[in-house]
Amino acid sequence: MKIIRKKVLVTGGAGFVGSHLCERLLNDGHEVFCLDNFFTGQKQNVIHLLSNPFFELIRHDVTMPFFIEADEIYNLACPASPIHYQYNPIKTMKTSVMGAVNMLGLAKRINAKILQASTSEVYGNPLVHPQPESYWGNVNPIGERSCYDEGKRAAETLFMDYNKQNNVSIKIIRIFNTYGPRMHPDDGRVVSNFIVQALKNQDITVYGKGEQTRSFQYVDDLVEGMIKMMDAPTSFTGPVNIGNPHEFTIMELAKKVIELTGSNSKIIYEPLPSDDPMMRKPDIELSKKELDWEPKINLDEGLAKTIAYFKSII
Ligand code: NAD
Ligand code: UDP
Questions:
Q1: 190 pocket-lining for ligand 2 (C-beta < 6 Å)
Q2: What is the CATH code for 7-313?
């Protein structure tokens, strides 16, 4: 089968998810422009791609306009870990909102399809469980997490309005907690924290009582969902949930990581951050129906791969 080589712009391409997406697009035979300001991403994540003539790495900040000829844009630029997006909340909001305006403006000018990496955070601390796309969420507009949650919600609004007003071909996916190789060891998110702590036989830091739940998705499943969404018919704009519906408490995760690493670490308790959602689990009926997508990699399998990665770097 002849491959049609598309030109694809990936913003935030040197980050955890972005680097896996760039790799997959190159493997599928496409030309990739990886744009990043290296706030939370690193060259190391894409260093193995630099020798590929169909890969270009561009240092740029999405809050500033950018021009390139491309067929598709994946807009991932935005810090995703609470400690990083709360470091400079005004910048986080600018990245989501001005980044969306700049990338949508580009998509409009060059007639490219554009996908937004939105988040389960748009549901806030949900009062509906599991969360279907039709749920509008329960978000604090003035709390510690608001710069990220409200920034991503405003970006969704911009995407829908560019579609309605300017006929830009848009796709919105709401990503639930994703983990895997190339998360930064100091990223601060729970899976990387627990694995690094376990491998170093340090205390495992459970926030609150560990009764809060999350549903963890391995990065390869997410990348498959992103590509399927981009390739879906134009009429299907989303938003669509992309996540793994198997729900675990944070305590269950801590125990699983200790077991799989054979660690001597002890569990300690630290205060629960404010507005930390008590539960989160995607309803994925829409992705099954419209994209024929559902996750394939279970937590044990994904954790084993992720632990092997962290063992190799620390
Ligand atoms: P990450 O922090 O590893 O990657 C984000 C990338 O964006 C980094 O390379 C960073 O340097 C870059 N970036 C940040 N601000 C930028 C700016 N102003 N201009 C250019 N580049 C900028 O996070 P990730 O986990 O890879 O997340 C990727 C995307 O997916 C984010 O938009 C995030 O909100 C979304 N998402 C991720 C998850 C998850 O669990 N990983 C869940 C929901 C949504
Ligand atoms: N968490 C924890 N210990 C850590 C890091 C996180 O108990 O060292 C908890 C955190 O309070 C939250 C859950 O794990 O309830 C997921 O946190 P993460 O930052 O990974 O993602 P998010 O809160 O954005 O879903």
A1: yes
A2: 3.40.50.720
